[in-house]
Every structure is written in C-alpha cells, then in structure tokens.
Please model this.
Amino acid sequence: METKNYKLQIPNHEFQVKSYWLDQIADFDKEVDFPIAIICPGGGFTFHSQREEEPVALRFNSFGMHAVVLEYQLIGNDPVYPTALQELAKTIDWVTNQPASRHIDKKKTILVGFSAGGHVVASYNGVASDTALRQKYQLDQYHGQHAAVILGYPVIDMTIPGSFPNDNKALHQISEDQTLWKAQDLLNQNSKPAFVWQTQTDELVKVVNTIKYVDRMNELNIPVEYHLFGSGIHGLVFGTYVTEKPGKRKYLNSWTSKWIELALNWLQMMKLLD
Model:
C-alpha cells in the first residue's frame, strides 16, 4: 500500500487530501481495479477528527477499496460552504483523472461522511445531482460522479433545536446560505443510494436528522439502508479499542461496531463491491 498527501486547488483556495492506495496482489492472475472511498471526517466544522480518518481508510482498504481522506473547509474567516462542496467536487474530479496505472474503478466512488463531514457528504448527494445547484455552487467545472454515500451519525438539518450546531452564530459561520442548512431538502430523483447509521442515544446530533434524510430518500424511491442502534454516544466510529479515546470506555460499543460489516454487505448488494 502507498500512502501519500496531496495538495489540491480550487479557485483561490488550496486544500489537502490523504491517500491510501492499494497495491496489486502478485498472486492474482490478472490486474484488478479497486473501488474507492472518499472520507469526510467529523469534528464540528472546527477540526478534522483523526479517529475518523486513517482507521476508517484502513478498514475500507481491508475490503479491497482505495481510500482518500478529504480535509475540507472548516469554520474560519470564510464560511464552510460552498467551499466544502467545491473541495469534494474537485476531489472526485482528481480521482476521475488518475491514470489507469492507479487501478481505480471510477464508477464505484463511494462518499463516506461522519458527523459534520456527514453533512458535507449528505448535502453533496443533493447538490451534485441537481443541474441548477451544480451551476449555482460552481461545481459544473468538475468531472466525475459518486455512486453511493455512507453516513455515520451525520448532521443533516442544522436548524433542529437542541441538535448541532444549536447556535445561531455557528450556523452562519458554517453557511450564510439557508439552502444548505437542510441536506434532506437538497435530495432529488438523481441523488445516489445511501447507507445511514446512528445511535438513538446520540447526545449531540438528534436522531431526527437521519430520520428526515431517510424519509426523504424513501419519498424519492432512492435505495437506502438505515440502522438505528439502541445505545451509544456520538462519535463512536467503530466502537472498538482502535477508536476509543484513551481511558474513556464510553467509546466502546460492541453492538454499533457491526455497522461496518453491514455497510460491506450493502455495498455488495448494490454491486459496488465484489
């Protein structure tokens, strides 16, 4: 496996992606093109959680997938949006333009988002599949498209009282554009299938977030698989020792750790993974 950091550019802005490229296996009788996961970690739009970066990338590698982590725009002098959407579009474009020698199955690009990164992915799943919105947010200059999304305890609707961000100042720091406050309202007939999971006891992002997204996908008759686990805090990632914060056993949850195997099964069912 080759790991490498790259600097990518959109107009007047530079950002970083981290790649985890699989090698060809010598004892295969032919070369193989691998699907790819583009991962957007959480962090409340104030940092990128490393617990949702390399551990997740390596797990997708173990499924026979390349992986790329996107260090998208955070709260700062400029709003998160629409820059974060443009960064994701550019990352897909960059993957699409990788040489054949990289052995990427570019028709099987899966977007993976956790928490705040889940909002980036969930929003992109609507914006990128709407011609007018692609033009409005300047995504139409980028090529390539995703095939599906995987969302872990995602922020969906940023206007829900008592749920993230639950702060009007932070909301406007994330986006001044109210169109982007509710990812469920961006979905359309051309949006891609989704695998979604959350815990009922999530103290930061209320369960109604995922319910609204899944309900809207059902209304549009888009394939979706949804798992609501009965217990667990926000930010579990795998719920195992790999992603446990040191000494904080509340980050261990053997039941929710099964989501990754369920996602693997779903990808196979959707014919996005052999």
Summary: Residues 83-96 form the longest helix (14 residues).
